[in-house]
């Protein structure tokens, strides 16, 4: 097996893994739909690049150890970006939930203010 074939297989496996993780994150509601769509598209690009690209002359430019180091570095970068994306999605969902709770509290507050005003008007009428 040549270096180019190994690189193609690794790209396809990474793309499929990213796609599965994206679907699972969407199902578990860890990531928002927008981010899942972007990650799904990126996974598709990885798979297509692994299938369509033919890196036949790669060995002349980069050694096997260099390719392994580059792939390990890219996996670390992608994993960190994935983690940041999940954290941003969780915070976004929490922010949306807090906004809904504040809206409900504001409505309840307005209702209580109206009730207080009606009670004050009734007291003024009875005191006169």
Proportion of residues in helical segments: over 70%
> How is the biggest beta sheet arranged?
none
* Mean of pLDDT: 89
So how many helices?
3
How many strand elements?
Answer: 0
Question: Strand-residue fraction?
Answer: under 5%
Which regions contain 5 or more consecutive residues with pLDDT less than 50? none
Class from helix and strand fractions: mainly alpha
Shape: rod-shaped
Query: What separation lies between the terminal Cα atoms?
Result: 99 Å
- Rg result: 28 Å
Taken in chain order, the helices and strands follow as HHH
Structure overview:
The protein is mainly α and 128 residues long. It has a domain of 88 residues. 85% of the residues lie in helices and 0% in strands. The protein has three helices and no strands. The protein is rod-shaped and about 100 Å long. The model has no long low-confidence stretch (mean pLDDT 89).
Short description:
The protein has helices spanning about 5-25, 35-50, 65-125.
Please specify the SSE layout and strand pairing:
Elements lengths: L2 H25 L5 H20 L11 H64 L1
Helix pairs in contact: 1-2
Question: Could you list some keywords that capture this structure?
Answer:
3 helices; mainly alpha; 85% helix
């Amino acid at each position: 097996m040549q270096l180019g074939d190994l690189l193609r297989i690794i790209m396809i496996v990474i793309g499929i893994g990213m796609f599965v993780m994206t679907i699972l994150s969407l199902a578990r509601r860890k990531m928002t739909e927008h981010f899942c769509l972007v990650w799904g598209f990126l996974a598709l690009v990885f798979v297509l690049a692994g299938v369509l690209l033919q890196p036949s002359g790669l060995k002349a430019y980069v050694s096997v150890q260099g390719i392994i180091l580059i792939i390990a570095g890219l996996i670390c970068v992608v994993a960190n970006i994935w983690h940041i994306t999940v954290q941003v999605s969780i915070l976004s969902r929490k922010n949306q939930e807090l906004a809904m709770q504040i809206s409900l509290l504001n409505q309840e507050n307005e209702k209580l203010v109206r009730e207080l005003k009606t009670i004050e008007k009734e007291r003024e009428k009875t005191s006169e």
